[in-house]
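Record Glycoside hydrolase superfamily, 165 aa.
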Amino acid sequence: MAFAQKLTHWICAVSALTLLLPAMAADKEAWKSRSIYQAMTDPLARTDGSKTHACNITAGLYCGGTWRGMIDRLDYIQDMGFDAVIVAPIVKKIEGCVSYGEAYHGYWVQDMYALNPHFGSPEDLLDLSKALHDRGIFLMMNTVINSMAYITNGTSPEGISTLPG
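=>
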């Protein structure tokens, strides 16, 4: 889809959401009393429920956590006393491994118009939202528009234009 068409779709979607926000979003007073758990989706919530298979976070690689797996961890989050969750950025990240690892943390955005397939499907994200709200837990979405990324070898960024001077 051409960029202009994507932008038009995005603007229409945001415009439509602004009409619903007053009815759907909690106001700042409602948030003031909340304890917010910052969930790093990948290491927290492996879909298979495993807590024992190797997940070496210092290696910087995906561990297999998903939004579906996060639904299975809601008792854990709620039992710690949290009543709001902020999830790792949900949009598509760069694929592959760079010198710092993979984009398991949710940053290094590549496509603002697509969800991170490592974390699940659009339906999985909607199911997570419903499961949280069914428990009275607020959901906060983390947006990282300032963390766009491009894979290079670090010394020769082919295809990237630089500003003169």
